[in-house]
Amino acid sequence: MPSRAALALVALLLFSLMMANAAAEVTAAGEYATHFGALGGLSVDVARAMPAEQYGYRPHPESMSFGQLMSHIATTNYQFCAGLNDSEPPALPSPTDKDSIVKFLSDSFDYCSKVIPKLTDTQLTEKHNSPDGRLVGREVLLAMYVHVAHHRGQAEIYLRNNGIKPPGYRI
Questions:
Q1: pLDDT of the residue at 31
Q2: pLDDT tens digits, residue range 21-31?
Q3: pLDDT average, residue stretch 93-107
Q4: Which residues pair with 135 in a beta bridge?
Q5: What radius of gyration, in Å, describes the C-alpha atoms of the chain?
Q6: Phi and psi at residue 162, to the nearest 5°
Q7: Is the separation of the CB atoms in 155 and 69 below 8 Å?
Q8: Surface-to-core class of residue 29, CB atoms within 10 Å of its CB (0-12 exposed, 13-18 middle, 19+ buried)
Q9: Which residues have CB under 8 Å from 15's CB, separation 6+?
Q10: If you count Cβ atoms within 10 Å of the first and of the last residue's Cβ in the chain, which end, N or C, has fewer?
Q11: Can you tell me whether residue 49 is helix, strand or coil?
């Protein structure tokens, strides 16, 4: 029968290996990518919730229409993520109908979901171009998250102004 000391040593080695594997798998970019995925899913659900005939709705003459607001989120997603990659954004469409705008928005989150998890710690500490100027990579991620959440929050008010309950918040 193995001694208690031998069993304790085996347990300690297994625990150490598990912790080393867990630490190796978790990166700052990976953690952000997880939350960004939820942010994207909720944002696309908000875009889908507005009826097509209300995509031209604006709460004030100086406000963007709902469709313009969704397209604005998509455009800046591409700009933020291309900046993190130190590249130019791809050619962007100018959609005008609900289905095209929802696709544009969804595609922008897909584009970023390919960029963000691959960011290195070095990229997170270096400066990159962004719609908000040259920022350190971590600041670009924060600015993008805040930007999306800000405008999605506006979009939820647009929904409520039209008697539509927004999709439930989730992270």
A1: 86
A2: 444 457 888 88
A3: 97
A4: 128
A5: 21
A6: -105, 15
A7: yes
A8: buried
A9: none
A10: N
A11: helix
Residue in the block written with tokens 């953690």: 31
Kindly state the tokens that stand for 123.
């990229």
Place of tokens 């150490």: 16
Residues in the chain: 171
* Residue carrying the six token digits 């997603």: 77
CB 159 within 8 A of CB 170: no
What is residue 128's three-state secondary structure? strand
DSSP alpha helix (H) spans, 50-161: 66-84, 98-115, 121-125, 137-161
Whether the per-residue pLDDT at 142 is higher than 60: the answer is yes
Mean pLDDT of all residues belonging to the chain = 88
Task: Supply the pLDDT for residue 28.
Answer: 82
- Percent helix, strand and coil across the chain, each rounded to 5? 70, 0, 30
What is this structure's pTM?
Answer: 0.84
- The two three-digit tokens of residue 64, written as one number: 């963007």
